[in-house]
Amino acid sequence: MAKANDAVTGASINKTLGADITGKYATVTDVDRIVKDLNFFYIKATAVSTTTDFGALDVGDLVIQIGDAAGADDTHYMTVAAAGTLPEAAIVDDLYIVLRPSA
Predict the structure, then answer these.
(1) Backbone angles phi, psi at 62, to 5 degrees
(2) What is the C-alpha to C-alpha distance for residues 41 and 19, in angstroms, rounded to an integer?
(3) Full DSSP string of 53-71
(4) For every one of its 103 residues, what pLDDT tens digit does the chain have, with 9 covering 90 and above?
(5) Phi and psi (nearest 5°) for 40?
(6) pTM score over 0.90
(7) Structural contact between residues 81 and 70, judged by C-beta atoms closer than 8 angstroms
(8) Residue 61 CB: number of other CB atoms within 10 A?
(9) Quick one: DSSP state of residue 52?
(10) Residue ranges per domain, the chain?
(11) Residue 10: in which H helix or E strand, if any?
(12) If 74 and its partner were Cys, which of 50, 67, 93, 103 is the partner (CB 3.0–4.6 Å)?
């Protein structure tokens, strides 16, 4: 078994899959550094307003919306363009995970 920071030997990937995943993986060391440099928090929407629950948002924050409905395929990403304002109408009871790089 290979260590987390070593290449896996003997593995083969077809060309399509390889193209799809190129650049999407990082070593454990890279992930540790990224997590230490990243602040994150979550918001559960209580209203459809773009501002009611979102006063803590800063310009450039990455927001991941996760739908409340079981099996719903509505998870997506948004980037905050105006402080304190979600880029689109909120959906009540959806979970919004906010990722913010450390300054």
Answers:
(1) -100, 125
(2) 32
(3) T-TT--TT-EEEEE-SSTT
(4) 344 444 444 444 444 444 444 455 666 677 677 667 778 889 999 999 999 999 999 999 999 998 876 655 678 899 999 999 999 999 998 999 998 877 6
(5) -145, 150
(6) no
(7) no
(8) 22
(9) T
(10) 39-101
(11) none
(12) 67
| DSSP one-letter code for 76 | E
- 86: region left, alpha or beta (phi > 0 left; psi from -120 to 50 alpha): beta
Determine phi and psi for 16, rounding to 5 degrees.
-65, -50
Q: In DSSP terms, which residues pair with 99 in a beta bridge?
A: 40, 62
User: What is the end-to-end Cα distance of the chain in Å, rounded?
Assistant: 38
Length of the chain: 103
* Amino acid letter, residue 101: P
Q: Which residues contact 83 (CB under 8 A, 6 or more apart)?
A: 57, 58, 59
The one-letter code for the residue type at 79 is T
Tokens describing residue 36: 């230490």
